[in-house]
Amino acid sequence: MQHGYEIVERNVPFKEGEIDIIAEKDGELCFIEVKTRRTQAFGVEESVSPRKLRRLRLAAARWLEGRPWADVRFDVIGVLVAEGMPPQVRHTKGIDRGAR
């Protein structure tokens, strides 16, 4: 990743589901779901259902056991791969508290 993020772990499996990326930036720990799309019909925020976010939160809680992180957020990175166009990447921060 770029923009000052440090990758902590990738593809971390739990019974609740896999965490695609765990990264840190400026003391905030980010649990990141990566979604690839071939169409712009739905945005990346819509691709993470409330159920998926609950499972991501549960997996994050397991990962955080015994780790002292106070500031945590959940993000989505959407990659649009449309035929005949270069890939477009969109990083939506804080899907758990109203996307930014």
TrEMBL record:
Entry GO MF terms: nucleic acid binding
| Alphabetical list of SUPFAM superfamilies matching this protein | Restriction endonuclease-like
- Which Pfam family would be a valid example here? UPF0102
Q: Which InterPro entries match?
A: Restrct_endonuc-II-like, tRNA_endonuc-like_dom_sf, UPF0102_YraN-like
Similarity remark: Belongs to the UPF0102 family.
The record's listing under NCBIfam families reads: PRK12497.3-3 (NF009154)
The name this protein carries in UniProt is: Uncharacterized protein
> Which lineage?
Bacteria, Bacillati, Actinomycetota, Actinomycetes, Mycobacteriales
